[in-house]
Amino acid sequence: MVKALLDGSYDGVQLYHVRMAFSEDMESIGRFAFRKLAVLLSTIIRIWYARLRYRTPTLYYPPAGPNTVPVLRDLALLITTRWLFRYTVFHFHAGGVSGFGHRLPAMVRPFFHWAYRRPSLAIRTAPQNPDDGAVFGAKRNVVIPNGIPDLRGTVAERTSGPGEPLVILFTGVLVRSKGVMVLLEAFRSLRSAGRNIQLQLMGRWGDTDVRRECSEFMDMHGIREHVVELGVLDGELKQARFASCDIFCFPSFFEAESFGLVVVEAMVFAKPVVSTYWRGIPSVVEDGSSGLLVPVKDAVALEEKLGILLDDPQLRVRMGAAGRRIFEKRFTLEAFRHSMERELKAITDKDI
Questions:
Q1: pLDDT at 33
Q2: CA nearest 13: which of 334, 336, 337?
Q3: 189: part of which helix (H) or strand (E)?
Q4: Quick check: helix, strand or coil at residue 53?
Q5: CATH node for 2-147+333-349
Q6: How many Å apart are CA 23 and CA 34, to the nearest integer?
Q7: Domain coordinates in residue numbering, the chain
Q8: Rounded distance, CA 180 to CA 200, Å?
């Protein structure tokens, strides 16, 4: 979403980018590495340089989620750079960091509160997310949903034909809190009930213990041949998987989840969604209209809702079409950029 913001064209806002390349891949996110210390120092210096060169009055920063290493990174960056800028914007793409302070050592907590205190503007992606901006005393606090480009028409779309297994697609980091094990349990029950289905997992395994547990589960219940591990896909290969599934399933309870952008990617291609009542996901999926929602960690409820869609092809079409309409109305890239420009421009137009 930061890249989507930077790639936009704006009349009233000029953006200068300092890239924060701390993690080389998903597996390294949230983990300490000495290489990251060098990147941290380099990033601080480049922020100073950009401030002096471009004289921008506003620092735009996406705070970390509730994880120790990224939070400590935030503290180092913000304490050494915020004082240079008149205004600070926090865009909470990850949710829940405001509740993390008590988990830090007592000597670090004052720095935590100082680093995040009273931003000029706080942005969160959905009203259901933790209100980090309010906790930190933001002078202005708004909700701006994420948006993505409309890629429908760039790849061929299809649904499973007669005799073919119906495809359930999951996309995301393959970790426990994204609901991978819950999905496998529901899938196993659906297969045991005689349904002709295939599960596709698109993404990188982010936890070796979870990967081993899932592998053992698939072998124990004889479902491995019906589960396809796609790995990480990008571009047309990724879009093609969205365009050719029958149901998109995202049973997340991820600690830093704030929006579930992959859900919108499925809605672009008019796919019905089964997901969870978790953070901002209900702001994207309208339960009973564009998809079905279940409580987190509830494999029985997930099996039931998936079964409803598997048994009713007309319902899949209706919910997919409803999701497509919701995307066109609320989650386009143009709507996201317009809202961001309006709020960023207002910072300097009015002395917040």
A1: 65
A2: 337
A3: helix 180-192
A4: helix
A5: 3.40.50
A6: 12
A7: 2-147+333-349, 166-330
A8: 11
